[in-house]
Amino acid sequence: MAKAILKVENLKKYFPIKRGLIAGLRGEPHRFVRAVDGINFEVHKQEVFALVGESGCGKTTTGKLVMKLLEPTDGKIYLEGQDVTELRTQEEIKAYRRKVQMVFQDPFSSMNPRFRIYDVLEEPLLIHGIGETKAEREELIYKALEMVKIVPPEDYVGRHPHMLSGGQRQRVAIARALILNPTFIVADEPVSMLDVSIRAEILELMKELKEKMGVTYLYITHDLSTARYFADYIAVMYLGRIVEMGPAKVIIDNPIHPYTRALLAAVPEPIPERRNIIKEVPIKGEVPNAANIPPGCRFHPRCLYMERGLCDMKHPQLVEYEHNHWVECWLAGKI
Amino acid sequence: MAKNVLEVKDLKMYYFTSRGAVRAVDNITFELKKGEVLGLAGESGCGKSSLGFTLMGMPTPPGKIVGGSIKIDGREIVGLPEDVLRREIRWQKISMIFQGAMNALNPVYTVGYQMIEPLIYHKGMEKEEALDKAMRYLELVGLAPEIVYRYPHELSGGMKQRVVIATALLLEPELVIADEPTTALDVVVQAQIINLMKKLKKELGLSMIFITHDLSILAEVSDRVAIMYAGKIVEIGDSEKIYYEPAHPYTQKLLAAIPRLHEDVEKLEFIPGQPPNLIRPPTGCRFHPRCPYAMQQCKEQIPELKEIEKDHYAACWLL
Fold it and tell me: What is the domain partition of chain A in residue ranges?
């Protein structure tokens, strides 16, 4: 087994909720939103690891923790064996950020509109002191643009972001992440704002970069179809926990957790014969507030198979259901 | 043969900007039968939402209808004065479910207050009677009738979208335009709203135009599908035909760009380039600069929609 590039252990992030004056005087306890509540996973070299879930499940918070944009409440993050949570000084954090880069969701707001494309790409080089002379930096910028197929780069470096299409802008955002030659890229919903055709274009590009350049990704998405296409591993998150994790195909073709099954049943597919069938999604109710997490299995109030006395009392753990396929459910294999 | 609820002929709606006229809806012709759902798909900026608003008789300024006809239930609405449109057509004959349910409700009024307004204004109902009807429609869309006393912030996104749908149906219109009704919702809620639309279609025999950029969602609801590109319909036909035997190169490319959940796709296809500027659209076929099969003729002459088999039309010189 290849060594893990990124290893996350028992990672937790609790956000405190402001207590009102009266609640404070009454001595009511501090309350927390448990956005990420004890998750474990590993990402190997040249792999795409997808975190999938609905809004509020903690997937973006996990991405921010990995980027060190947030400090965890508890738990460890290791990048190539180095404990990231121990990094304290500016220099250490800067060196870390050089290795881990991010691609954001919205290519329209992730770039300074007053910058030319040249400036957008030169900024990370200047911050990290890469390229002694202007000529060296220019070469790196041209190379990065060629990598993401913004060609010929000479035609584009002088433009401002608004002069590019959405797809081109997202390519530049990827080039900006790649220019530092990072070990790891966190891509937070990089294609969800894009049109179908541009989405395909960006997914193809990211896939090619993975295969040719050995880029490793943490791919954060709500879309199981693109996860199946792009990712090697999928972890499904629900209310701050990973409830199921395994190779992408296994998760899609043989889901075990009732929540994964519900998510999959909800994915629309381009099959017109289904238009007259009403296929109910096997789930009840709505996602509870992350400040009020249900006791026992946090999915139990919405689960159709819930066993009283077990699921609503005891918290299940993520266990290996079959080789490399992890499930957090008391009834795994029985339903 | 079911009658046509909507007949659109040679419809043109241009946005008049300082840089010139943007031809967002350019010579659109189609019809919709009673009880039918027509899916309208295309990339951002292809004019699909503009067409939706135009059908409601309210093109967004600086847009103006410059030609063509829209007949709803046989009655021509192009050229009708605004007060007639408001009194007799909008919400009664044709209504719209807007994109972004989160923002379609007024946060300072209760749900009930917002819902009964059109009933009082249009039908002259008493408050009690109107509230009663609003409650029945909330039940129809799967909500508790007591929701009428709630404020929008007390509801989840899915519940708000259901309220918006119930409101659009209150005056019993013949035709509903749903503009990206599920875009901002999570997948589970999205699937529930799609199921609701299917149920309403079946129970009320509703005719609908469903606008979205997502061809997967469209397949779940549409009897027929129209594909728009740069202000024009390039292909229209029964769903099965569009999804399994797409004729227009643009439709083919769009379908090949969708990642499938249960199929192995080796490589997703994408369309190089970007949609054209509609102030000065390309000559000939508007898709020719991005089309892998473009010929000389495509650059010079505009292809019209032609029937390539029964009820399946496409606008392409290759056919």
Answer: 4-327
